[in-house]
């Protein structure tokens, strides 16, 4: 299996491609990473060094890969944080090239826009690009609850509302929606939910809420894990169960160590054989 992953990258820590690539490789996937930025560390530290690449730089690397004649072997494109609208355009152009070479290839878009604590944190124009172009082009989207609200324009305070919001996003184009973190009036205070929808059906996975310090990159990892399991099984429910168990194992080990960075390498066995699994329930 080959996946083209176009995301940000950091030298220290695990966000963007630095969070998504290794879990996929540990699962036996040949990943072709293209970095949209090259930073020393994620920006949550308040200080960092490095470069942001532009759309033409991404297009140049994609073209070089295409010239190797391998795009027909690419099973999926995965995208995450888009630093600027022209990078988003370059990513969508890459998706079109891959689909032209392999019509069965999937596009998984992690629509990174913001979160409940920070609000919108992407540059101007990114939210519109996500809503108008990236999400409609995707087969799979993996928003958090804040992004689900924004993309759908609907509330998600109840499970029924969350399902309606996911269906509204599906109506834009994606056949699969994975809500990577969800808290409704039905979610106990000591738990967190994930919700997957496909073909008019929905499934929920509930895991214990962890005492985590502020960590970044979990959404990048879970999008990658879900994509690989979906490619292998063709089942959103199965992919939800496996990805949810793995990400919980990663976060649990990170919490137990009191780390402010994901312990992606230390917890690598969780990606192939989660130590704890949780029931997936139809809702």
From TrEMBL:
Residues 90-259 form the Pyridoxamine kinase/Phosphomethylpyrimidine kinase domain. Gene3D superfamilies: 3.40.1190.20. It comes from the Bacteria. It is an enzyme of class 2 (transferase). Its EC number is 2.7.1.35. GO terms for molecular function: kinase activity. Keywords: ATP-binding, Kinase, Nucleotide-binding, Transferase. Signal peptide: none annotated. NCBIfam families: PRK05756.1, pyridox_kin. This is pyridoxal kinase. It comes from Methylobacterium thuringiense. The lineage of its organism: Bacteria, Pseudomonadati, Pseudomonadota, Alphaproteobacteria, Hyphomicrobiales.
